[in-house]
């Protein structure tokens, strides 16, 4: 049934409120079962020997000592024929060069060499230490500059360059010629790690030729498909369960080796196997946001008209291909007739990149939004005004389609007003060692998945309800939001609704919880299912009460006619009593034709820079988000606060550090890899929902939130840094040492005149 119920949601009674998560208590009390909590009778534990070198060839693996260690029940390495399955890097992707499960060519510190299954986790780790490996160490490259030098060690057999891509519209040469001001700068971001609270892992159990996997994943259906494909078994014999998940940020979308290894070890031993990574492994081996170098040239006329953008981008993608481009917003965010983009990806001997909360977009904002700031200053225009003037009201890369809704102008205007932009901008920066500044940056999110969701709602005679949907709740509150949609449609209290989700064996299909699309794709299907249930209940009541269905209303467990008469409790419906349950099935209607769907965002930041110590302190931030209709104000706020926090990390503290001498990561732990703590995040964070009711996007009015909540945050901080100091920090993170260098350099330049 289509999701095009025309009822406006102005009568909202539940959706939009700030409600705590329906499973918050389970999560907090520790009774929610995550993958790591899944314990099965006779379960074994796995651990992996990973290559300790940045680049090496495995000459010989000797497992004989390891096999004799206490508790060891199985081992696997490249010599085992059951491990001889082609590994791929992305679902549906072709096997890459040398991409085996235990590839003898180890391309980074962390590549899998051999695994062990033992009676306890400790015994598994002890056995790993007893594995004897002879490595041939190879020369390595730890950064793209070295990787691109002639004669550099080849990370992949085909060389160190991957997937060049280009985009072009108009004529940039003409565009720059028409400009009054042309600026050009090279911006750099660092490699960032996902640092999910729950480590990655799987529990595998075979029952005959049926495989059940509890997997810490954003996309159980994707895992089902990839595991079935790799093991050559039918989809119908693979069940993947991902009921609770503790953070993925993109690193738990694609299938990982640990899942397949757990399945292989479980098959080999005939016992369930738990394989959860250690914290250090989760820093080394499960993905990252690749460091980007973005050279951006831009032209503008004195009146603020953009004439051209030219972007040359390189991503440092680690040892394996995964896809990493960053030019998207340069093409689409602002009206600009002439755009040229060249991007390429460079292999280095380090952990591979993976999707990470708005892949490429925060990097793009770092370059584009600092450039916009520079242009505004050069032509003497306010940065908010300059952006407002250039906001593209149609989707420039999508055939100039209009958007279903575009709240970016409102994000800029309302955000500036609420932030006190004009006043803050003209405030004195300070002439002591500590200076203050404010900055703004905008963004959009450009991912769009096909609408491919089904949901089932079961309404029971006692008024309790079961919602069955495929979507994983990766910590965002998806289960709560969907339950709220049902509660509102059926007029039942939230605590009467049970949600079953993210289990390929028992729930409906949903695409992976990524791309900030879960709410926009699944909530319309959920609503449609609830509407179908309601229609059945009203039909039953009409027949029983002899009242036309159009005159009946369902609310608070009762169906009533005009003026409340006649009136019947739902539980008294004879039809419902006879069959005990009414079932509704809903699917998501297609995306609107000839329209583009995009969430928009503007972030504001105020910072203090200590010119003596180089410390940058974020004093306050404001996030104006256009994600369509707000579904739950509390989970909405939480997503945005998380986005701002990750933005502070990108701007100021986070970077993977590889040792120049060994190519090994030196900060593969939560002590030395600096995510922002409570000390780094200001209390003064304002979340401003631009609550546009997008009646075209779908039947719930929602767009996406999770990723846009991060995109421009770091760039806003960088612009505030510039406003405070008059110096551009082109490289993220802006560490105290880099600030001292930048300020010294700028003083030297001034002295030289
Ligand atoms: Mo997201 S990076 O699509 O989980």
Q: Beta-strand level of the residues, as a percent range?
A: 15-25%
Largest sheet: 7 strands, mixed
Strand order of the largest sheet: 3-5-1-13-10-11-12
> Total strand count, please?
30
Detail the poorly predicted runs.
Answer: 1-6, 90-98
Bound molecules: dioxothiomolybdenum(VI) ion
Strand and helix map with partners:
Layout: H1 24-29, E1 44-50, E2 56-62, H2 64-67, E3 72-77, E4 105-106, E5 112-118, H3 121-129, E6 132-137, H4 144-147, E7 161-169, H5 172-178, E8 181-188, E9 192-193, E10 201-207, E11 210-215, H6 220-231, E12 238-241, H7 257-269, E13 273-276, H8 279-284, E14 288-289, E15 291-300, E16 306-318, H9 328-332, E17 339-347, H10 361-378, H11 383-390, E18 394-395, E19 401-402, H12 408-419, H13 421-426, E20 434-444, E21 454-460, E22 465-469, H14 478-490, E23 497-501, H15 518-545, E24 553-555, E25 558-560, E26 567-569, H16 574-579, E27 581-587, E28 600-610, E29 616-626, H17 633-653, E30 685-689, H18 713-725, H19 736-752
Parallel strand pairs: 1-13, 11-12, 16-17, 22-23, 29-30
Antiparallel strand pairs: 1-5, 2-4, 2-6, 3-5, 7-17, 8-15, 9-14, 10-11, 10-13, 15-16, 18-19, 20-28, 21-22, 21-27, 24-25, 25-26, 28-29
Residues 218, 248-250, 253, 355-357, 359, 514-515 line the site of dioxothiomolybdenum(VI) ion.
Describe this structure in words.
- This protein is α+β, with helices and mostly antiparallel strands and 753 residues long.
- 28% of the residues lie in helices and 24% in strands.
- The protein is built from 19 helices and 30 strands.
- The strands form 8 sheets. Strands 3-5-1-13-10-11-12 form a 7-stranded mixed β-sheet, with helices on both faces. The protein has a 5-stranded mixed β-sheet with strand order 7-17-16-15-8, with helices on both faces.
- The chain is globular, with a radius of gyration of 28 Å.
- The model is unreliable at 1-6 and 90-98 (pLDDT under 50).
- The chain binds dioxothiomolybdenum(VI) ion.
